[in-house]
Amino acid sequence: MKTETINFFDKVYQVAKQIPYGRVTSYGAIANYLGAAKSARMVGYAMNGSVGKDVPAHRVVNRKGLLTGKHHFEGTNLMQELLESEGIKIIDNQIQGFDKVFWDPSNEL
DNA sequence: TTTATGACTCCTC
DNA sequence: AGAGGAGCCATAA
């Protein structure tokens, strides 16, 4: 096994799992916390394998608070409903008050 | 094994 | 100020 690369994914899962209720974060924030600010895409890819890992991928959105990955969920607005269920308002796939619900791992963790 | 793509972000024109 | 291109690393074919 070697593969230190797994550390990156593993860390993403760990951070995503620690996202508090009613809060959201961005791929770049996680990537930055991991030291790979330019690898934000990998964070999103990591979410792809988050299924079966207790990782609330629906709490992770792009830097604009836009639900770019909602298309990857089962339904079409499943991600939105999950966030709304936590008290987060979403309009047109965009999180309202994103700055207020934004959770920075580098700041909180 | 190599090539291509992707749930993003930043820099430059 | 707005638009476009490049970079990042891992997964899939």
Could you please describe the fold and organization of this structure?
The structure is a single chain. The chain has a single domain, classed as Winged helix-like DNA-binding domain superfamily/Winged helix DNA-binding domain (Arc Repressor Mutant, subunit A, Orthogonal Bundle). It is built from six helices and four strands. 42% of the residues lie in helices and 7% in strands. It has helices at residues 5-17, 27-34, 40-48, 78-85, 98-101, 105-108; strands at residues 25-26, 60-61, 90-91, 94-95. It is mostly helical. The chain has a two-stranded parallel sheet with strand order 1-2. Strands 3-4 form a two-stranded antiparallel ribbon. Strand 3 (90-91) and strand 4 (94-95) form a beta hairpin. The radius of gyration is 13 Å and the shape is globular. Helix 1 (5-17) crosses helix 3 and helix 2 (27-34) packs across helix 3 (40-48). The chain starts with a helix and ends with a helix. It binds a DNA duplex (13 and 13 nucleotides) through residues 5, 8-9, 26-28, 31, 36-49, 57, 60-63, 67-72.
Notable characteristics:
single chain; Arc Repressor Mutant, subunit A; two-stranded parallel ribbon; DNA-binding
Layout of helices and strands:
Blueprint: H1 5-17, E1 25-26, H2 27-34, H3 40-48, E2 60-61, H4 78-85, E3 90-91, E4 94-95, H5 98-101, H6 105-108
Parallel strand pairs: 1-2
Antiparallel strand pairs: 3-4
The structure holds a DNA duplex (13 and 13 nucleotides).
